[in-house]
Design brief:
- This protein has 231 residues and is α+β, with helices and mostly antiparallel strands.
- The chain folds into two domains: 3-149, Nucleoside Triphosphate Pyrophosphohydrolase, CATH 3.90.79.10; 151-225, Winged helix-like DNA-binding domain superfamily/Winged helix DNA-binding domain (Arc Repressor Mutant, subunit A).
- Helices cover 31% and strands 27% of the residues.
- The chain has helices spanning 3-10, 60-72, 133-150, 164-175, 181-190, 216-225; strands spanning 16-26, 31-37, 47-48, 50-53, 78-85, 96-106, 118-121, 162-163, 194-201, 209-214.
- The strands form two sheets. Strands 1, 2, 3, 4, 5, 6 and 7 form a seven-stranded mixed sheet that branches.
- The longest helix is centred in the middle third of the chain and has 18 residues, at 133-150.
- The protein is elongated, with a radius of gyration of 21 Å.
- The protein starts with a helix and ends in a 6-residue tail after the last helix.
């Protein structure tokens, strides 16, 4: 590197880059958010998204994956970049730019709350969060709703076998409204992305409801190509 290039880089002001992760789970009835009590000042013991600073030799996405693995013990899950948050006064602890990611996990398959001192919150219970984390959360919710209209959602949030009422409950929660059951069933089955099983879930009634699975190949293809799922 020439002296001129070195001078160009050294004259720039230094700042910290962080990643913050918005973690959604589905309990069979509604989407929930995983929050943590902050361990350091400022804002110690207040509710927060989970995050950390990006290491010098670390890619940003690798940093987000590390945060999930180190703090909640999760690997190989759905993780997508949401955007950057960089208001100059966003963090009183220092000049920090944060790259937010959101993750989708099947809530019942990950026993992480007691182990990692976290708590799942339903939408009505979510407290005021530190910094600009409420803004990140709202952006993630908006992004999830857009995604649900353009790509199949559920593979990451539902159990391997599920009923159509469970799938509808997931979409009801995403859009925060009760969708018409008949229209939803007709629309979702027309996508030809579900496989009906010769098994029933009889936990809620004697008659029971047929169980379904996603057709993995068709699901992945539909995620890549997209579709319109407006109800």
């Amino acid at each position: 590197m020439t002296e001129a290039k070195k001078a160009f880089y050294t004259k720039g002001e230094k700042l910290l880059v962080a990643v913050d992760c918005i973690i959604f789970g589905f309990d069979g009835n509604e989407i929930k958010l995983l929050l943590f009590k902050r361990k350091v000042e400022p804002f110690k013991d207040m509710w927060s998204l989970i995050g950390d600073f990006v290491k010098r030799e670390e890619d940003i996405e690798a940093a987000a994956a590390r945060v999930l693995k180190d703090n909640v013990g999760l690997e190989n899950i759905f993780l997508e970049q949401l955007g950057g948050y960089g208001r100059s006064d966003r963090d009183p602890g220092g000049r920090v730019v944060s790259i937010a990611y959101f993750a989708l996990i099947p809530l019942k398959t990950h026993d992480i709350v007691e182990t990692h001192h976290a708590r799942w919150f339903s939408p009505a219970e979510i407290p005021e969060l530190i910094l600009d984390h409420n803004e990140m959360l709202q952006d993630a919710v908006d992004n999830l709703r857009i995604k649900a209209q353009r790509q199949p959602i559920g593979f990451e949030l539902l159990p391997k076998k599920f009923t159509l009422p469970q799938l509808k409950a997931l979409y009801d929660s995403i859009f925060e409204k009760k969708l018409d059951s008949r229209n939803f069933r007709k629309k979702i089955l027309s996508l030809n992305v579900l496989k009906k099983l010769d098994e029933k879930d009889k936990s809620t009634s004697k008659k029971g409801a047929f169980l379904y699975q996603f057709d993995t190949r068709k699901y992945k293809k539909m995620k890549e190509e997209g579709f319109s799922f407006k109800l």
